[in-house]
Every structure is written in structure tokens, then in C-alpha cells.
Hints:
Elements: H1 2-24, H2 29-53, H3 55-60, H4 70-96, H5 99-107, H6 109-121, H7 127-149, H8 158-180, H9 186-211, H10 225-244, H11 251-259, H12 261-273, H13 278-299
Helix pairs in contact: 1-10, 1-11, 1-12, 2-9, 2-10, 4-8, 4-9, 5-8, 5-12, 5-13, 6-8, 6-11, 7-13, 11-13
Amino acid sequence: MWVILALASAFLLGIYEVIKKLSVQNNAVIPVLFLSTLTSSLIFLPFVIGSYFAPEFFKSIHLFIPEINLEQHGLILIKSVIVVSSWILAFYAVKNLPITIVGPIRATGPIWTLLGAILIFGEHLNLYQWLGVSVTLFFFYLLSTTGKLEGIHFKTNKWVLFIVAATFIGAASGLYDKFIMRRVDRLAVQAWFSFYQVAILLPILAVNRWRLPKAERTPFQWRWSIPLIGVFLVLADFLYFNALTYEDSLISIISSLRRGGVVISFVVGAVVFHEKNLRKKGLYLAGILIGILLISLGSH
């Protein structure tokens, strides 16, 4: 069951990536990120309030959000800081890079999750995992050669560095999710995580919009795709966190399956944004996903 949940989450994430690109293209990044996060928090607010005043009803519909203690709030706050850091970098990268470049880079996330598991938990790679890492890195290198054809040099382009850093931080978040989901109710994590993100982003928004000279600010344009970022992410994360609660769930496989959403964003993004070198990028993306599949087989 957790595999099906992870696949459904991947599909929603693919749509989420396309909507995100539509929202930040030629637009101010921080306001878009703040408003999409605010949308997520507003979705959860009725459930938090309702769970307090009518707990039995919300338990009956499996949307009860329990009260949590101070230590659990601290764990969720740490997750929020990690994710906001990743998102700020990722949103700027998505704005300034082709989605057919961003998607394959983000797809390498399970490699960094696996390497993190080696460093933190002392895990050892088997033959499948070593082969998967090697294949993924090889096709990642080939992807960088395609980027050069579009004037994007992976070693020096700051937006590439942004998306790589966002992917690293996202991998750390994936490891932390497995830890926190054993200690805090999944709906409580998702709800309070959204609230804390708004609290973290509010001062960042204030500095970005009011402290910077007007000439240095990118004008903000309201688009109806902006709140949809929050809606699709809430749904994708709801399925993701649900998958993690299964005792036999494997974070490495869930992470790999979630990265499958890149196929959706790649195909739809290629059509919507009319991007270049699609045949080569598609081939290299397939190679990266084969590498991720090998890692998953080895982990299983």
C-alpha cells in the first residue's frame, strides 16, 4: 500500500513542479513562496481547530490532528527550517533554469539520501547500490554537457548550484522525515510544519519586499497558479507522510518513487515551455531514473 501512496504522491509532485514554474516565471520569488505556503497553512487551520473542539468527528473521518508537546513542536520547527532553506533555493533555480534541467537534477536526490544514510546510520552499499550511484552520476554528468549547449555551465552557473544545494538539503529532510514520523503524528507534522513555514517566511518576505530598494525588487504579479502550489503540495505530502507511517516502508524506495514525478514535470514542462534539446535530456533523465531504480532494488 505504501508503494501506491508513494506513486500517487509522485504524480502530484510532477504537476506541482509545473505549476511552480508557471508561478515564478518572470515573477517575484519570495512572495510566491510565501503565498503558496500560506495557502497550505489555511488548508490545515480548520482541521486543527476542529480537532480541538470536535475530536470524535475528526477521528471518524481520519483527519484528527492531536495536540503535541513542546519537544515535538521543536522537532517540527527543525524540519520547517530545513525545508524552507531548500525551497528558497529551489524556487529561485526553477525561475531561472529550464524545467527540463531542474527536474533531472532534483531526481538525483535519493543518491544523497543514500549517502547520508551511510554517513549517519553506518549503512553499507551493496553491488546494486554502487551500480545505481555510478549510473546516476554518469548520466548527471552527461546532463551537464547538454546544459552547456544552452549556455548553462554546471560548475559556474549559480542557479545550478542553487538547485544542487536544494537537492542536498532536501535529501537531509528525507532522512529527518523518517526520524520524526516515528515520534510525531503525521497530520500534526504536516499541519504545524505549514504554520511554522509561514512564521519563518514572513520576516524574510518583509526584508525582501520592504528593505530592498524598489529598483532592486522584481515586481510581483498575482497568478491563480500560486495557491495551487500549496494545494498540490499538501495532497502530495499527505500521501507521502502516510506512506512513511507503514512499519515496513523503506525511505530509500519512497524517495526513489517520489522522484518519478520528474517524468510528469519533464513531459508537461517540455510542452508548455517549449524547451530545447529534449531528446538528449530525456535520454539522460531515463539514465538517471534507471540508476535510482538500481539503488531502490539494492535497498530493498
